[in-house]
């Protein structure tokens, strides 16, 4: 949504103009057009093609290329339904310079992963091709541009390849089938009444996909793949002058049809009456409510428009905070609720309130949404709410400003896509920050409060309710829905009461501890500290981001230390605390205290450990540490929040197993743990009743009573010298009793030998297949690397065989890993979805490929695909804070020597085809695997 994006725009660069050289005054003429970021070069060729070029070195030696087409499924005629999307598939199946599968093979050979990196998508009004490639090799860069040029007008559209791809696209269509699809097919024509959008979903129809004529596809390509509807985007570590010349030379020769079809933008008609759709399905897992008010599209072109969007952001943000408070009641009206203003489709905006409720909670949920909208419409918001949310908005933009030179290229590319397609402004973060900073304070409460009267009315209103068809649950009729809305609109409503809260988390600092030991971890350029209470801290300061710090902490033990009678209580103890808050502050109070701060932290208890995790900015790290300290020392005991937690989860779980996918996941976990009573499965509503409120607090306190048992990790942009006193104050002061606990092996193991299990659930003709090779094996980093590499290779091969050759799947994944705890073991999983009639053939093909690896090994070409991808992935990840916080925690948790951290680089250099072959022989045994298949009900 346009307004949400404004809050989340973290990715613009500096824009220096005469307007920005001076402070933007509130009395500035707001009717002048918005500027365009001068760091992006925008041009248009004689044939109408638009290009965007930006130099950006994050990540280095890489460029994000995009081909954007201002055309999608809305332009299909009846014989072409689904062919805009089908063409997107054909772009990877033969072009002038890359026949058949050569394109994917080539890109994999230079480290570009199909699906993860190389990708595309089709929507109602657009088609976008995504190609991130290395920019430090001129040949690769030129070939990348050749790929874009081929997509634009040089697809071969070979008849044999078209027929092969029919099966792949039908499998993608099949993946989308289910309860949500069946219900959507009923409510979509109501939402888009009398509009072409109602029957132009990009996936198309199965009948068309199976029977369309070759020339029908070619005609769509000829009509709409033309330069005056295209944009080429290049953002990355490049020379803009050189890139511009390359684009002009290559794309300047593209041609438009002599008699081009008109590019029509289809309308969504207005309506006076409220349109209502109530739809059920036996396999629906959740009950959802949409309350939609359609609005005319308003472009953002001037400074006044930009200010208008700011008021939209403030209104919806404050209302969402009210909805968040309501879901924390002992008997909440919904599990989740949200409201927002944004683009509905290209030609229509909408103001929407959305909620997920219990199957028997439709009336309460719908009336609450209507009442809260009516409350805001009648009485508006309070001064306190407005000031707090203004702080949140400014904090977000300040963070964006600080990260301006560390913004990822793909984020800029996404912006330019939106600018080309829907004219979303791109003034640059420098302008945007200064404009918000100077204009936001001037936005009055009255300006914001007027929006409710503009947005909420009786015309252009749509109500959609979807949920399970289930005995004992009666869905409302259209007449009853309209009656609920009338009752809620006419109800006696009091103004919102904004309760006063403290201005800080802690009134006084605790008695600090001291650093007693310091150790330099040279290999990973980090520092290990031991505090006087025994707590261990690992610090790695980085410059990857300017305003980002991640924190993780763990202590051995977790749920494993408790008996079966305490299982549900132990598993949910940390969630009970998080729902309750700290000290005398509820989560709502904490949110208010932290308004305008970048602070996120919370506790967890899992199977083998407990701990806290969080993130913050350098200037707010003390506040995050205060929150962590309070989670250790002052968990809030609140019965109402506990009842709310149980009530929301009961609503969430009450119909979960009616959905075939959730059922399959649950049963697969049961099979994989040999039906062990401590095996991890979805809880049931009955399980929630086993959670004991007082015992949850006892367990939580037991798990967090001893700081000496914890290891903390901090990675990001901090000054270690300044951070240490804060660690001494808030972590060094945590209680300690000097215990050293270990987790307990609960004996959960997979079944041995060969297990074949077929599950029957659902009415759609689709199946899920999971094959797991698993067993006990001494953990070793080198062998684990070989196992993971085997998974990467087998994934590539199965894409070629199951997808490209047999046209039997849309996607397939093979993944191998080894674990050290709670017992040393390995797991290798192959999974895919397909038509039930193809299960046996495709499963056989999987085992045939495994046998080929065992017998013949892999080719040098296939080995290169693996290693090139790994090298580029590793290079990028080594410059990510998230990677380092996870890696450091993993090394300490597993007791692995950090001096071996860069062995991975040597392993990549030494990886040989024989290693992959040996891993297949060692781990993928014919007498030790579990195969679970989901089939439709007979």
List keywords for this structure.
23 strands; seven-stranded mixed beta sheet; alpha+beta; Cytochrome Bc1 Complex, Chain A, domain 1
Task: Annotate the secondary structure layout.
Layout: H1 2-8, H2 18-21, E1 41-44, E2 50-55, E3 62-69, H3 83-90, H4 102-109, E4 119-122, E5 127-134, H5 138-153, H6 159-175, H7 179-191, H8 206-211, H9 214-224, E6 230-236, H10 240-251, E7 275-281, E8 287-296, H11 303-326, E9 336-345, E10 348-357, H12 362-379, H13 383-402, H14 409-422, H15 429-439, H16 445-455, E11 461-468, H17 478-490, E12 515-521, E13 526-531, E14 536-541, E15 549-556, H18 567-580, H19 587-593, E16 599-605, E17 609-616, H20 621-633, H21 639-653, H22 660-672, H23 685-688, H24 693-703, E18 711-716, H25 720-730, E19 754-760, E20 767-776, H26 781-805, E21 812-819, E22 825-834, H27 839-856, H28 860-877, H29 881-894, H30 903-910, H31 913-923, E23 929-935
Parallel strand pairs: 2-6, 7-11, 14-18, 19-23
Antiparallel strand pairs: 1-2, 3-5, 3-6, 4-5, 8-10, 8-11, 9-10, 12-13, 13-14, 15-17, 15-18, 16-17, 20-22, 20-23, 21-22
Helix pairs in contact: 1-11, 3-9, 5-10, 11-16, 12-16, 12-17, 13-15, 18-21, 18-24, 20-25, 26-27, 26-28, 26-31, 27-31
